Each structure stands twice: as structure tokens, then as C-alpha cells.
Amino acid sequence: MNPEFDFADAASLAERRARLREKIPKSYHPAIYFGAVNLLALAAIGGSLGALRQVTLLEWCVIPVAFLVANLVEHRVHRGPMHHRSPPWTILFERHTRQHHVYFDQGHMAVATAREYFWVFFPWWAVGLVVVTALLFALPFAWLWSANAGRLFFAVAIAYYLSYEWLHFSHHLPPQSGLGRLPFLVALRRLHVAHHDPAKMTTRNFNITFPIADWLFGTLDRGRH
Ligand SMILES: [Zn+2]
Ligand SMILES: [Zn+2]
Asked: Which helix (H) or strand (E) holds 155?
């Protein structure tokens, strides 16, 4: 049990959720926000891929490497500062542990209204952090190897972020929704539901996307018990 909260107190959880619901800005439109994020990400991916010139076989290998690095970074950041107060990254802990995990526990995973996606999607500042992190890896690839390698790394990193948002979106849909019933998504959702158990959130299932790093580091809980 995380000492920050007493999730066993259902009334307290309901109160926390009500307080967080009030904090959703009146101007927030999840479809507009998510649509804009998708357009910007696709433009960044398209711009990077469109600038590729005569890619060699070795340069194409950046794709699986970048995917694996993104999976490891997702696991590391989620296991670290998103679940442990770690200055100067306290804002990640606040947003994730004290807001996302308070709003959704394993018994209350689905949004009741689309506006509640405010507590699921990355805020704008976090999207900025994703871009900076992607550049921190992509620029050395570009400088030390080739422009193609850097562009491929950046495109994969942004595509990975987009897949994170889409998968997290589906994990918090009502299970009876069309998307929520796809077998592949049902399996991934089960892992994320286990992660939202307050007793497991600091130790299990830090990959919200594909549980590769969880499997590698022994933090995978298949959520079948
Ligand atoms: Zn979640
Ligand atoms: Zn978490």
C-alpha cells in the first residue's frame, strides 16, 4: 500500500475523485485536445520520415532499437519519478500518482464521461517533455551517425508516445465499448488494471504499452488472480 493514500477508504476515494473532477477546466474538450495531439505528432513523424534520404540497411535498424529504448524509458520513468517523489520531477509524481491513480483504481478504471480523459491524457507540458526526451536521444544519433538515423529515432519515439496515448485511452474506456473488447486490447488492459491496484502500483506493470521491460525486469503481473 502506498503510504500517500488510503485507497481502502471508498468514501475518501469518492471525495478525491469529486475534487479532481472539479479541477477539469471548463474549456477542456478531450476530442479537440486529442485530435490536436494526433495531428501534431503525425506531422512530426511525417516531417521526419519525409526528410529521409537513401536509408541504408543499418540505418533502418534504428527502428527496433528506438522502439526498445522507448519501452525501457517508459518503464524507467513510470517506475521512478511517476511513482516516487523525486525532485525536480515532483510534478510527474503529482500528476500520475496523486491524480491519475487517485481518479482511477482497479475498481474504477473506466471514464464515465469523455471529459474525465483530462486525468488520462498527457498535459501539454508533458508532451513538451516527450519531445525534449526524444530529441535527447535522436540528436546524438544524428550527430554521431547520420541525419537519417536521428530522424528515424525521432519518428519512432513520437510514434511510440502516440501509441502510449492510444493504448492508455483504450485501457480507461468502458470494457463493453467496441475498442475495449478487442482481444489484444483486453489482454493489455488486464495488465494496466493490475497496475492500478494501489497495492501493486509501485511494483508491477510499468509498461502501459507493451510489457517488454516489465518482462525483462521481473515486474510483470499478468493480472489473472
Ligand atoms: Zn491508467
Ligand atoms: Zn502508474
From this structure: helix 147-171
